[in-house]
Amino acid sequence: MAKPTKRRCPACRQVKNFRSDNKTCGCSGTNPNLSMKFRGVSAPELDAKVKKVLVGKKLTLSELADKIGVAPKEVAASVKRLEGAGHNVHLAENEVSIHNSMPQGGKHVVDAKDFTSKGKWYKFGAMGDTHLYSKYCRLDVAECLYDIFEEEGIDTVYHTGNMIEGEARFNKFDLVGPSGMGRQVEYNAKYYPRRDGITTKFITGDDHEGWYINREGVNIGRLLESAAEDEGRKDLQWIGHVEADVKLTAPKGEAWMRVMHPGGGSSYAVSYSEQKLVESFQGGEKPRILLVGHYHKYNQGYSREVHTVQTGCTQDQTTFLRKLKIQAHVGGTIIQFHQAETGEINRFQVQWIPFYDQKFYVSKDKYRRW
Description:
By secondary structure, the chain is an alpha/beta fold.
């Protein structure tokens, strides 16, 4: 039996005689500053408690610590862990809160030399609405598009949102596997097309993958990027939620390209949605190029001196789209344009790469994953 020794109790902070194999003197650990390890609370357990208590509330560190029964420093550490894991938990001016929404937008600066050594011509791939984990996803099309991008020497692809299918009440039977955000995030990290030398810069929409933001209060874009990194790939880079502006610099000027996943339903005229988007932009804030996802359509336009491109999709027409009499344009694009030294976009070309139903390719089924 271990003999009592005189030492300081980590719970009550009193110097007492107690057995060396006991963590405390038997004071029940009432000290509020007691470290988690002496209370038998693991970090994941504390993180779960913090998130549960915070839902719908704003509390100071001290208030939150009192409710959970740990020291404020333990709560602060928990908030850092939750933020790092992609939860929308924030600590600002000693106040902790959790949100089921997140700020929209993002800035991504690209120099012309990122596209070509001459600094005049830009060439990149643009696609969107891949909806991985949907049984209607055309992963064969996505893989073929990346083969083409690779053959064309393209090193950057812009993705206009809805990378994964997400999960809602009405699409549970459209999924290729069991429900769960983690499964979809891991599936995307494993199966989204990967080619050496090609980086995919993607945004997230406030639908499909965005449903997880609304319900779970997570940063789904960061989770998708982090899961890809865990899979050993650095080619998937999240650049913004709903929209992101890409700065195109020239020696004597600049221009902006906006990558956007808007809302609303498809219109009777394919071009109408993008036209109304451009019309709604505030004066002086228009981009020179607008890449648009969400509508599962391809179209090229030029409204108010803005080059607009709807980037198509790699998902066959779902029963939901069929019910609403909405066609899916399956495919992707290659965009090439010339920027003057003063920043203006003075030439603009779009290659639309169309695909058809799966039966058309029945003899070329090498890209099927299930």
